[in-house]
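Supplementary Text 2. Reproducibility record for the structural model of the 163-residue chain.

All settings were left at their defaults, and a single model was retained for analysis rather than an ensemble. We include the record here because the model underlies the residue-level annotations in Supplementary Table 4.
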Amino acid sequence: MRSVPESCKDRKWLALGKQLAAATDRSFTVMSYNVLCQKLVKRTMFPYASKSSLKWKTRRPRLLDELSHIMPDIMCLQEVYTKNWGDTFNMWFKREGYEAQMFQSVYKSHGVSISWKKHRFQAIDQTCLRMDRTTEVCGESLTTDNIALIVALRFIGVAKRVL
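Retained model, structure tokens:
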């Protein structure tokens, strides 16, 4: 791992038991991270944050520092702004040795992505799901347009086993 970014220094991490920590050819790391679609950033939602910390030019290098620090084998991102997928995340994944897929909501400006280290895994199938469109809550219609991306992966160089 690389040096700990400033934004991670105060985080509390859970330690794995010794039996889980031993690396094998079938062990792998997974990270799930909501990157907060830049288009959804509203000052009123984050009153504790400085104005500059909510801007993409500040958030971008911090997010990439955190991803670079963790470097999991499989990474699942939520609320990926389509614009930032093209100019930031997808380019970063390629440069760092990941394959990546993104699935965008039809009615929103963001989506989800799954990436994996291409020297460890091969994608053998994928499915995109649209789980709902309109839900009724307390007599009101609420449009959610929830989506999901599922990617089936196979270890490279290990007996045929699908994740």
